[in-house]
Design brief:
This protein is of the alpha+beta class and 335 residues long. The protein has helices at 2-18, 144-147, 177-183, 193-197, 199-208, 240-257; strands spanning 49-51, 54-57, 73-78, 81-100, 105-106, 111-112, 132-134, 136-141, 163-167, 232-234, 284-290, 298-299, 322-334. It has one domain. Helices cover 18% and strands 23% of the residues. A hairpin with a 4-residue loop joins β5 and β6 (111-112).
């Protein structure tokens, strides 16, 4: 039943895209457009590129690699056969994430399902209360390389069609911190002052060196703290851009805890993805594509003082509705 519902929702989205329904139905509340794999993707984010234990192409956005596979030769087993190959490492555009205020505002898909009589009007912007803000998250399998039919013969690239993987409107944990505390009791531990202060080191590492500290997995650098794993975030000086990034990072951390997201980096990933219940922050980088396309790929926790300016224009329907292309580091054995 769950797979059938996801298939139906995906069919609705694809039908709307094929009918050129790029303008969203409620522009006063939710405006966006389908993320174009040609013009919206910053392909420089794929770098650095590692091959056979060496960096063959560098990056001007900081390395941010979650460990470096030094062994040039690797092997994987398929059935009863062992294959020898060459170790590879690169960033793959793998997922798309909306962080939006209106319910069912699919900003990255160019659709607004929130004004329908089925769902009800979810277009009321969430108020800021006590310095906190709430936003919904939508998570899609969105692979530009697959959509463009590129590198399909390359065994290291994931081959999945466009699909809806998660909608926070159907997740009671997303907007209920008490329920989240029951599901993730470690939240209490990470609320103590010494562990919160440890996040200062993560903020410096992410902001200055573009290298968040994976061991401090409860921290989101200059954005705040991961816990509680909900759709709420603190807003500093009405910086909704940074708050939306924090809510996106919180979801990724929760996705790993619930095994929606898996590990694709390190030695364990050479022959395929593996369960990773604790997020490895260096596995991911964010590229904002809505409401403004950014040319930067940001590590989790990089202070918004360096990049958030102008990323949330005060335009009706666009303000506060964000989409991020998630670049995921991929270690693999190419044979």
């Amino acid at each position: 039943m769950r797979d059938f519902a996801r298939m139906c929702l995906t069919l609705i989205i694809v039908t709307a895209l094929l009918s050129n329904s790029i303008a969203i139905a409620g522009p006063q509340n939710c405006a966006g457009g389908f993320v174009n794999p040609f013009s919206d993707v910053e392909w420089n984010c794929m770098f650095p590129l590692r091959m056979a234990g060496m960096t063959v192409a560098g990056s001007n956005m900081g390395s941010g690699t979650p460990g470096k596979i030094s062994n040039p030769i690797c092997s994987c087993k398929e059935g009863n056969t062992n294959y020898m190959g060459i170790s590879m490492g690169f960033r793959e555009p793998a997922r798309l994430m909306d962080v939006v205020f209106p319910q069912f505002c699919l900003a990255g898909m160019g659709m607004d399902l929130g004004n329908s009589s089925v769902w009800g009007d979810g277009a009321v912007k969430t108020d800021v209360v006590n310095g906190g803000v709430f936003a919904h998250v939508h998570y899609y399998t969105y692979l530009p390389l697959f959509l463009l039919q590129l590198m399909l013969d390359f065994g290291c690239t994931e081959k999945l069609p466009l699909d809806v993987a998660y909608l926070s409107e159907f997740d009671p944990i997303h907007n209920n911190e008490a329920l989240g505390l029951m599901m993730f009791p470690e939240t209490i531990l990470f609320a103590v002052t010494p562990l919160i202060l440890a996040c200062v080191a993560d903020a410096i590492a992410a902001t200055v060196f573009s290298e968040p500290i994976d061991a401090l997995f409860w921290c989101a650098g200059g954005w705040g703290t991961m816990y509680p794993l909900s759709g709420y975030a603190t807003v500093r000086e009405a910086n909704y851009v940074e708050a939306s990034s924090l809510i996106g990072a919180k979801f990724l951390a929760r996705a790993h805890r619930t095994l929606i997201a898996w590990g694709t980096s390190g030695e364990a990933a050479m022959c395929g993805m593996y369960p990773m219940p604790v997020i490895r922050k260096t596995q991911y980088k964010f590229q904002q594509v809505r409401p403004v396309r950014s040319r930067m790929c940001l590590p989790i926790g990089k202070s918004g003082l360096l990049w958030a300016s102008g990323k949330n224009p005060p335009e009706p329907g666009k303000e506060g509705n964000f989409s991020y292309l998630i670049w995921r580091w991929k270690d693999c054995c190419a044979f």
